[in-house]
């Protein structure tokens, strides 16, 4: 029998506070080697504090943190940051301005380490900056500087890389490009990483698993698909993606749930249906419930249509066409919706 694999990161019942104010409570998760976890939550929920506890910048008040099977934090035990060797990529790269790109990437590698130059070159290639080693940081764009910061973090092959809103300072188009580049680089190098973000599309598109945090607690930890399609509660449903919660009015003879927007297959049990805009089909006439178009938001590739159902319930739909505000359309539900209480 092979020995059970040791988690790269194990956090058990973690609690932390600043003075008398509790910030984290009962935080539990495990991370396998090579896994990428996104911690997703609104501003002030404790994401940065969690990273600081993992890195060793904060002491913990309850619970335990282990890295590769070694306990690094207990309420009375604190392995300092430099001995944990966890790498941090901050929001803005904080590169050394007087060092070249290659010297920045090699900063954590001992001068005489065999293969140092090759590892620097490899990390620059992993982040898509092959050939730019001789540049100075000010000769790079903001996105390129963040890539260098990631290469610098990866170079010594740390047991864990922490990324704190690494795309926060960049504009929208660049963020989308960079997040896939970051995911690719971490995966190709087999790095274990925790990324914090308040941006749900970022968390869903980058991570292997997402930990949804609110008020210092993890409400759900799961794959992006699980968190989106099977949210554990109403808060997660509405924080991760767009959702309208429609009361379940009963069940149909074939086992679907009835709502004010029509019947639909339900996943799990609960008193409310998590209806996302892609579940709502709009037609002109035909079978369904009539609804009034309240508002239409242009999204570039589609429209988000706000609707009012006959009983006054609000629901949103995705639509390629833009119905006129005030007009009446027919609504039906498609796919399968999660049920929550
Ligand atoms: N050094 C500190 N001293 C006291 N309170 C702090 C300190 N740092 C953070 N806090 C408080 O702890 C809570 C959690 O902060 P934290 O920075 O971990 O949240 P966050 O989720 O990372 O937020 P954001 O997304 O805005 O960065 C907040 O209420 C914050 O005001």
TrEMBL record:
Span of domain ABC transporter: 9-240
Gene Ontology CC, one term: ATP-binding cassette (ABC) transporter complex
PROSITE patterns: ABC_TRANSPORTER_1, ABC_TRANSPORTER_2
InterPro entries membership: AAA+_ATPase (IPR003593), ABC_SmlMolc_Importer (IPR050093), ABC_transporter-like_ATP-bd (IPR003439), ABC_transporter-like_CS (IPR017871), Mo/tungstate-bd_C_term_dom (IPR008995), P-loop_NTPase (IPR027417), Transp-assoc_OB_typ2 (IPR013611)
Gene3D superfamilies referenced in this protein's UniProt entry, alphabetically: P-loop containing nucleotide triphosphate hydrolases
Listed GO MF terms: ABC-type quaternary ammonium compound transporting activity; ATP binding; ATP hydrolysis activity
Enzyme Commission code: 7.6.2.9
Keywords in alphabetical order: ATP-binding, Nucleotide-binding, Transport
Annotated transmembrane regions: none
Name under which the protein is recorded: ABC-type quaternary amine transporter
Organism of origin: Micrococcus flavus
């Amino acid at each position: 029998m092979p020995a059970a694999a040791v988690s790269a990161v194990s956090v058990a019942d973690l609690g932390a506070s600043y003075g008398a104010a509790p910030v984290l409570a009962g935080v539990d998760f495990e991370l396998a080697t090579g896994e990428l976890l996104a911690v997703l939550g609104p501003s002030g929920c404790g994401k940065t504090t969690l990273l600081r506890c993992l890195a060793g910048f904060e002491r913990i008040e309850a619970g335990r943190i282990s890295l590769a099977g070694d306990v690094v934090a207990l309420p009375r035990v604190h392995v300092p940051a430099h001995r944990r060797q966890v790498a941090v990529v901050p929001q803005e790269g904080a590169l050394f301005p007087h060092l070249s790109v290659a010297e920045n990437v090699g900063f954590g590698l001992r001068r005489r380490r065999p293969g140092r130059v090759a590892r620097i070159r490899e990390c620059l290639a992993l982040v898509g900056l092959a050939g730019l080693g001789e540049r100075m940081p000010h000769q790079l764009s903001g996105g390129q500087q963040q890539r260098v910061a990631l290469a610098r973090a990866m170079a010594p092959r740390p047991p864990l890389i922490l990324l704190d809103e690494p795309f926060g300072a960049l504009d929208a188009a660049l963020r989308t490009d960079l997040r896939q580049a970051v995911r690719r680089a971490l995966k190709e190098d087999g790095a274990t990483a925790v990324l914090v973000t308040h941006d749900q599309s970022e968390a869903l598109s980058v991570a292997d698993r997402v930990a949804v945090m609110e008020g210092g607690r993890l409400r759900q930890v799961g794959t992006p698909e699980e968190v989106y399609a099977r949210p554990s509660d109403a808060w997660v449903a509405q924080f991760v993606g767009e959702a309208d919660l429609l009361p379940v009015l009963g069940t149909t003879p074939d086992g679907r749930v009835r709502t004010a927007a029509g019947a639909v297959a339900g996943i799990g049990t609960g008193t409310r249906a998590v209806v996302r805009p892609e579940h709502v089909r709009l037609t002109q006439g035909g079978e369904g419930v009539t609804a009034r178009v309240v508002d239409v938001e242009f999204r570039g590739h589609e429209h988000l249509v706000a609707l009012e159902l006959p009983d006054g319930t609000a629901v949103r739909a995705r639509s390629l066409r833009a119905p006129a505000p005030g007009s009446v359309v027919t609504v039906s539900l498609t796919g399968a919706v999660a049920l929550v209480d």
